[in-house]
Amino acid sequence: MTRSRRMASAVSALAVVAGGLVSAAVIGVGPARADHCDPAQASQEQQQGQRNRNNNQDQNQNNDQQQDQDQQGQDQNQQQQDQNQNQDQNGQNQDQNNNQNQQDQNNNQQNNNQQNGQQQNNQQQGQQQDQNGDQQQNADQQGQGGGRAVLDPAQNPDPEQTAETFGRRNRPTRNPGNGNNGNNGNNGNNGNNGNGSASPSPSPTASEDHNECADLGPFVEDFVDIRRVQPRQLDARIGRGGSRGSFVSQCGTNRNGHNNPDNFIVAPGVSNGAHHLHDYVGNLSTDGFSTDESLAAAGTTCRQGDKSTYFWPVLRDRKVDVNTEDADGNVGQVLRARSVTLQFRGNASSQVVAMPRFLRLITGDAKAATNGAGNARAAWSCTGFQNRISPDKYPLCPRGSQVVRILDFPSCWDGQNTDSANHRTHVVFPGQGGACPQGTKAVPALRMTLTYSVPQGPSFAVDAFPEQKHNPITDHADFANVMPDRLMQFVVSCINRGRRC
Asked: pTM for the full model?
């Protein structure tokens, strides 16, 4: 009766555990999916998901403790049964010893009776019969005692004890890596917690307790308070033989809405070759199929006849539910730059020479998040803090300050080519001191400075290739020189004479 109650108690405990697992499976369903991709909200939902996972882990631990307690109770019951069996065996052995002593005494009495005559012989025969009966009884007792000591499941008449003994000896080992399958509802990835991975630019793996944009990036870790960025000098000090002047081409901020996801420099003849949207100023015809001839024949938004094309990936407000069906994950409302400054500057150690017409230039690396920072040239800042430059974080600016993108182009030309196979080796960046490498010539150095009014907090992102997770390090820009030769000569003159034009 006691054993049955204990087993009933264990079964009840297991039922409670099973009920807890079912309840956890219902509770563990991820939050509702959102339509937009606000990094700030994604972070809050990630934190809530983490809290849910911690709660599930606590419940699992409680369930494990309950199961361990039940198992300990079963083990104690088994130990008590083993002790009882040992006591029974000891009693049986004592009975056998007593019977053997009695047999020896009877044998001695038999010998005495044989010496005393026939009457004693008759008494011996009766005693011998009693002895035979005792031996048969002892043999039966020995057979029963051996069966209880072996506990052979095939011969044990108590099936409850057999099942209990088997369960104790073959208790399954709990696998912590797979133990959360039921507790996380639809969260299939968390079924193998030991295999989870995280990501650089913090690109944690996708689990369904995040919203549908949680994997797109950027992440809260991709932002920094601009006041925490250390000041640094962006430009090399201009030496005695350097060129101090500058020229600004005024081309507007793309009020005409010239946008496309093409890039005729890197992916000529391809529609959507960039997989992200570009803002264009200057040449009005620029798209993936542009040629020297088509650019020369087109109109421009720039003053003084500058038909050059200037373009960069757009910045988006991720709080707004726009472009949510974009196949490349570039979601949110496009933010047009509040100001665009296209400044051509000199060299720190030498005079500059004219750029050849149709020279093609790129700066930065649109795939720096996966390629590495070797060609990255991103520079993020805030108005009023432009001595603080972040190369790999979006800036969080104080209220009233605007986000700034600074995009510097290479300016040391090989003197022969307008393009190269990788679009980089024909024009490279000056060295650390500002001088051009031997065998190259300094040309006017283009700097694009773009400012934006963005929503407060980590809620904006630059367009990017899908796998780049909108990492700020991927910021980049492109340029093709289509200035008339006379205008280019004017630019060179302003720079070398130290004028600001």
From this structure: 0.64
